[in-house]
Amino acid sequence: MKTPTPRIRAMIAALIVLCAALTGFTGFAACSRAKHTPDELRPVLADLLPRAAEINEIYFGAGLPTTQDVDVVRAFYETFDTDVESISYTPVDPACGYETVDDIKAATLAVFSPEYAAFLFDRAFNGISDLFDEGLETEHRTTAVYAMYLEESGYLTKRVNLREDAIPLGRTYDLDSITVIRENESGVEVRLKSFFDGEPSVEVNIWLVETADGWRLDSPTY
Fold it and tell me: What is the count of structural domains for the chain?
């Protein structure tokens, strides 16, 4: 075998140093093969993505269906000492399978990572508000976006104008097109083709994390 020239030996050494640096500072084994293959991850996504579509409808679509039982609606309104017209929430239909905020949270955590779920929970159950004149006598907080769901008087309720904030949903995915982009200590990033509303296919990247309870999505899928 021909002995490598000093220049080639230097290039090999530089490559080894680069691999070590990438591995040490990013957690990404840049010079090794990903541990998980598309064949392993395909059934994971086949299970999670349809359930994610249901969760997306709760948070980004028209939301959970509301009850059509006039007696339930009347009973809910009568728990408030106020004009019916001023009430901006109405009871969710329990037949949909969700009766409490905790039900929604449990379904979300069965599909998405705790980190991504925390973003959804804050948006859906806390709303968004801004603090003005902090530390002054005129300090006050103004709500910019009201919570999407609240539990009131024993009812799970939905904000009545939620449909106005909905975004288009219905993206589908080509699971045969999965490729593994990278893998590190925090998860696996895959790329696959998606389709939306008759448009040409678009490649999207999705992060997956493996938790004690199984695989979870760690990025949006809508």
Answer: 2
The residue among 194, 196, 189 whose CA lies nearest residue 219 is 189
- Cα angle at 158 between 155 and 164, to 5 degrees? 170
Task: Measure CA 184 to chain center.
Answer: 20
Token couple for 143: 């709500």
Q: Which residues contact 2 (CB under 8 A, 6 or more apart)?
A: none
Q: Are residues 160 and 187 in the same domain?
A: no
The pLDDT tens digits of the residues spanning 90-119 come to 899 999 999 999 999 999 999 999 999 999
The verdict on 67 and 156 lying in the same domain is yes
CA 158 to CA 166: how far, in whole Å? Answer: 13
Distance, in Å, from the CA atom of 109 to the CA atom of 217, rounded to the nearest integer, reads 10
Of the residues 165, 184, 200, the one at which a domain ends: 165
pTM value?
0.73
What residue numbers bound the domain in which 220 lies?
A: 31-60+167-222
